[in-house]
Design a protein that fits this description.
The structure holds three protein chains of three kinds. By secondary structure, chain A is α/β, with parallel strands linked by helices. Chain A is 69% helix and 9% strand. A four-stranded mixed sheet of chain A has the order 2-1-3-4, sandwiched between helices. In chain A, helix 2 packs parallel to helix 9, helix 7 packs antiparallel against helix 11 and helix 10 runs antiparallel to helix 13. The longest helix of chain A has 31 residues. Chain B is of the alpha/beta class. In chain B, the strands form two sheets. In chain B, strands 6-7-8-3-9-10 form a six-stranded mixed sheet, sandwiched between helices. A four-stranded antiparallel sheet of chain B has the order 2-1-4-5. The radius of gyration of chain B is 18 Å and the shape is globular. The two termini of chain B are 27 Å apart. By secondary structure, chain C is an alpha/beta fold. Chain C folds into two domains: 237 residues, no CATH class; 114 residues, 3-Layer(aba) Sandwich (abc type-2 transporter like fold), CATH 3.40.1710. In chain C, helix 3 links the parallel strand 1 and strand 2. The chains are: A alpha/beta, B alpha/beta, C alpha/beta. Chains A and C meet through helix 2, helix 4, strand 4, helix 6 and strand 5 of A and helix 2, strand 4, helix 6, helix 7 and strand 5 of C. Strand 4 of chain A pairs parallel with strand 5 of chain C.
Chain lengths: 379, 259, 377
């Protein structure tokens, strides 16, 4: 293998990549844009759920409950309804996603010790938000109930009001006590970007050389297929690691994400993953003759699975069994697992070695396949 | 020499006569891309039914000139008229009466021979009653009889070239622009292609062709040698050879462009 | 129309599309794949939360407490740990998400009416799932507590009633099962339509640019608007085919029936198409190679899809960003599709969204046309 030739190809690829300004912008801007979006906008943490109230009772107790609800920050009162039809129209039009009804006599029932029914209507369309908001509503109301209970017990002469509740649940949240989503999502983003970069771009550039005829030109020189492969991969490895660095920097300095584990391990694993994805991209490029086909295949094989089946956004255990099995085939799944371990848990190879091994296998297999095919193609 | 005014204006008898004689009139045509002057004050006339050659190396400004005449580019300065229509204002009318073939052949690879021809015939709105016959004629001309159902992608270079010519002439244009039509095609196909061009010229079609093959230049009635955006010499092949005292046009060109 | 230039253009486009077997395959399969993905995969439903229990009491009482969680349907008790280290190991390795620690004096304190602290340790990596888990935990603990109180003080009349002061009765509208399928499936329609038409339109145009046939077309008497319409028509048709496939599969396979009017839906799809076609057109005017086209399309569409409320609710976003989403046409289209599918509402509730789409879509389309025209000349 001739090192000079490899360097020549690498140089050319770098020039290609950096001269196409649009591609550059996208390569470096996309991760940052995604990070910003996920950091500031995209979250499942609910806030200000538009709620409509129908308070037929209108006494201090109901007003108190309403104040507690708005005070929590989870709910925002957008209006009060006069009757059920009115309320329904709020829900139908989407102006409100929750409706809370206090019947006439609610407060007196509460004070006299009768069961006081509180009707809540939830727009279930967005199931996740509905479930979470019902959860929050219930806990706020439970808190209120508890307070009433304690007052009642106190007035009945039973002492130590607060000790009344039999169970004192003490939750401790590990790794991410503030429950911030960013720590969870950055690994997914990194994986996603690397996959796109590696697989799509490589397959597109290789195929475009084919269609433009310059591939033939290269073949006619005495170049070794492996040299060609390496030459093509190096710039994208560099760009890929650059992107990882960018994500880490933005995550740490803009979003205050702390990397609990080893930075070195992070880069090492990213490198492994990059090699695997690039092998995949190259393999795809050997099967496609036209850009459209390369595009199609790379998006189906890389883009979609690495976004959806890897645990990036949607938890894998919630998926149906068959699909969970399929997700075992998605390399991004292991990579994200590893990254999350490093970012959040601070664990090292002692826990991560199985996943790392799998990534290594993935990289080795992909590169071997594409090397073989490349060789065949060029001869 | 004044330029003919728009057809509905009253021109001088001299201008009208010029118009009738010449299919293409170009006066001081210039095209600048920023600071770069691709075409620099080019002037020439092409008579009806003539085969006019634009000869010169790559980058000399041949393609740019043709594209201005076809309405693909707006000239920076100068005027031109094609078929009596002004290239700066009436390009839509020009497009109806011209045919164009580029060196890329511009065929739809995923359409069959017949479908390509049928498409262009439809686009040019050739008379419906004669359309089918015309398409058959083009197929015959291109030597593709029996292969109407084949995808254009599967044709050899020479056949693609002739199919492309067929697509460019299916509407019987008065004026034909050919931009390096024989690039990358074998000599025999090239010769056959020129035969087709002769046939068209005999029928009265004006042909403006650009090429960098000197031997093809010999086939033209008149040629203009272009170098660096300017016309270095113009005349019939014989005239040029005589005037410059050379045996071949190639020698003439070398002499002229070295100045 | 019969023999017009436009007709021939459209005919050619259809021939090309229909001949492209792979493309056709995609057009039919893509909706189905997307439906499967978003119907089954993309679920935010939190269930089967893996739990480990460290029960240091091991009495009937503690076991009963534990069973409240096991029987809740939310948690799945996978391990019984022997000590804290084992427990921590299980969490670190990701084998469990929640650990429940019952102290050795659990039953003792319970029977003496003394408050018992019970520890829950949660893997906080996935903040969303964790909040939901916390919600479930609090709910279960509260239930248990009130039952206990009922047992202790049930005989004292005054008190037993106060134990259940507020009786929350929740009714869920539009998506009784509270499964995310119902929410996602209509969304798929929107995504599909947008992505398919934008990508395909821009690719076919840029492809002609790359192959040189676009230039050939410009030289003919074809008008720019004919060219554009010719390019868009096949994809509008295919887009509708996909919409119908989605509605069909959604209804019969996913049991997400279309509650509202299908005609209204189709009509509003057409309005939405202005946006995606305009986007495709605009990008194709700016791109020279297919690589550029694809990357540009991704770059433009990905953020707008993410911000449109498809997966992440707009109401959760900071106010500033919520204002920004007002210019994303997909946001309105999602509301419309979900409204028609799940709520069965009509134009009387959707007129504002329709208007917004018309205005935005119209603007994008007009800009695209202008840009395209200019590039052609």
């Amino acid at each position: 293998m001739n090192r000079k030739r490899i360097i020549a190809i690498t140089k050319k690829e770098f020039l290609h990549a950096f001269r196409d300004r649009r591609m550059l912008v996208i390569i470096f801007a996309l991760p940052v844009v995604m990070l910003m979006l996920y950091g500031y906008a995209l979250t499942f943490d609910i806030r200000n759920i538009p709620t409509v109230i129908m308070d037929r009772d209108n006494k201090p107790i109901t007003r108190d409950i309403i104040k507690k609800l708005t005070g929590s920050g989870y709910f925002k009162i957008v209006g009060s309804a006069g009757d059920f039809k009115d309320e329904e129209s709020y829900l139908l039009s989407g102006r409100a996603r929750m409706a809370i009804n206090f019947d006439n006599g609610f407060s007196s029932k509460v004070l006299s010790g009768e069961k006081a029914p509180l009707q809540v209507i939830v727009d279930g369309a967005d199931a996740n938000t509905a479930v979470v908001s019902i959860g929050y509503l219930n806990s706020i109301l439970q808190e209120y109930s508890k307070k009433l209970l304690i007052k009642a017990f106190a007035s009945s002469g039973l002492s130590s009001a607060d000790d009344l509740m039999p169970i004192d649940a003490r939750p401790r949240v590990l790794y991410n006590p503030e429950l911030r989503s960013m720590h969870f999502l950055i690994p997914g983003l990194i994986s996603f970007i690397l996959m796109i970069l590696a697989a799509m771009i490589i397959s597109l550039t290789v195929v475009s050389e084919k269609t433009r005829g310059t591939m033939e030109q290269l073949i006619s020189t005495s170049i070794n297929p492996l040299e060609l492969m390496i030459g093509k991969m190096v710039p994208y490895v560099v760009i890929g690691l650059g992107d990882v660095l960018l994500c880490v920097i933005v995550g740490v300095f803009v979003f205050g994400v702390h990397i609990q584990g080893s930075l070195l391990l992070l880069f090492f694993e990213s490198l492994l993953f990059l090699f695997g994805s690039m092998g995949l991209g190259l393999a795809i490029s050997t099967t496609a003759n036209r850009q459209e086909d390369a595009l199609l295949m790379s998006s189906m094989v890389t883009f979609l699975p690495s976004m959806l089946l890897s645990g990036f956004v949607f938890p894998i255990n919630s998926m149906p069994g068959i699909i969970q099995w399929i997700s075992y085939l998605v390399p991004a799944r292991y990579f994200i697992n590893i990254l999350r371990g490093i970012f959040l848990k601070g664990i090292g190879l002692n826990y991560l070695w199985p996943d790392t091994l799998l990534l290594f296998v993935f990289a080795a297999v992909m590169l071997t396949i594409s090397a073989k095919r490349f060789k065949k193609r060029l001869e | 020499m004044g330029l003919p005014r728009r057809p509905d204006c009253i021109g001088t008898p001299r201008n009208d006569a010029l118009k009738m004689e010449n299919s293409i009139i170009v006066d001081n045509l210039t095209k600048k891309f920023g600071d770069f002057i691709a075409v620099n004050g080019v002037s020439f006339n092409v008579k009806k039914g003539e085969i006019f050659g634009f000869i010169g190396p790559n980058g000399a400004g041949k393609s740019t000139t043709i594209r201005m005449l076809c309405g693909l580019l707006e000239p920076t300065e100068g005027r031109g008229s094609v078929g009596g229509f002004d290239i700066s204002g009436e390009s839509e009318r020009i497009k109806e009466i011209i045919g164009y073939m580029s060196q890329k052949f511009s065929l739809y690879e995923d359409l069959t021979v017949y479908e390509n021809l049928d498409f262009y015939a439809g686009i040019y709105q050739t008379p419906i009653n004669t359309r089918k016959q015309k398409i058959e004629d083009m197929i015959g001309m291109a030597g593709l009889k029996g292969r109407e159902g084949e995808l254009a992608a599967n044709l050899s270079g020479g056949l693609k070239q002739r199919l492309a010519l067929g697509c460019a002439t299916v509407h019987e244009p008065k004026i034909l622009f050919l931009d390096e039509p024989t690039s990358g095609v074998d000599p025999i196909s090239r010769r056959n292609f020129w035969k087709l061009i002769y046939d068209l010229s005999v029928l009265g079609t004006t042909v403006l062709v650009t090429t960098h093959y000197m031997d093809e230049a010999e086939h033209c009635n008149n040629i203009a040698l272009i170098s660096d955006g300017k016309i270095a010499a113009m005349g019939s092949p014989t005239e040029l050879k005589t005037n410059f005292g050379k045996n071949t046009l190639e020698e003439v060109f070398i002499e002229v462009s070295s100045k | 129309m019969p023999d017009s230039r436009l007709f021939h253009l459209i005919k050619k486009e259809f021939i090309q599309v229909l001949r492209e077997k792979r493309l056709l395959g995609i057009i039919i399969i893509a909706p189905i794949i997307q439906l499967i993905i978003f119907g089954y995969v993309a679920t935010t439903d939190v269930k089967n939360i893996s739990m480990a229990v460290l029960d240091q009491d091991r009495t009937v009482y503690s076991r009963q407490f534990v069973s409240e969680f096991g029987n809740s349907g939310y948690f799945e008790i996978k391990y019984y740990a022997n000590d804290l280290k084992e427990e921590r190991d299980l969490i670190d390795s990701g084998k469990i998400k929640v650990a429940l620690n019952i102290p050795s004096d659990f039953s003792e304190k319970l029977r003496s009416n003394i408050k018992v602290p019970v520890q829950f340790i949660l893997d906080g990596s996935d903040a969303n799932s964790t909040s939901i888990s916390l919600g479930y935990i609090n709910g279960i603990v509260f239930e248990y507590s009130t039952k206990e109180l009922q047992k202790r003080f049930g005989n004292i009349k005054d008190l037993s009633d106060k134990i259940n002061a507020i009786d929350v009765r929740t009714r869920v509208f539009y998506n009784q099962s509270l499964t995310s399928v119902n929410y996602m499936v209509p969304g798929v329609l929107a995504i599909l339509l947008m992505v398919l038409t934008a990508v395909l339109t821009s690719i076919t145009i840029v492809k002609e640019k790359e192959y040189g046939t676009l230039e050939q077309l410009i030289v003919t008497p074809i008008k720019p608007h004919e060219l554009m319409i010719g390019k868009m028509v096949p994809f509008i048709v295919l887009g509708f085919v996909d919409v119908l496939i989605v509605i069909f599969v959604a209804n019969f396979w996913f049991k997400v029936p279309l509650q509202g009017s299908i005609w209204l839906l189709l009509a509003l799809c057409l309005v939405f198409l202005l946006t995606s076609l305009g986007t495709g057109l605009y990008i194709s005017a700016l791109s020279h190679t297919m690589q550029q086209t694809i990357l540009s399309v991704i770059f433009v569409m990905l953020p707008s899809i993410l911000l449109s409320g498809f997966i992440f609710p707009i109401s959760n976003m900071p106010d500033v960003i919520q204002w920004a989403t007002l210019i994303i046409p997909m946001r309105y289209f999602l509301t419309i599709v979900r409204g028609i599918f799940l709520k069965g509402i009509g134009i009387e509730y959707l007129w504002m969204e329709t208007l917004a789409m018309l205005v935005l879509g119209g603007a994008i389309f007009a800009l695209a046309v202008k840009k395209f025209r200019k590039k052609l000349e």
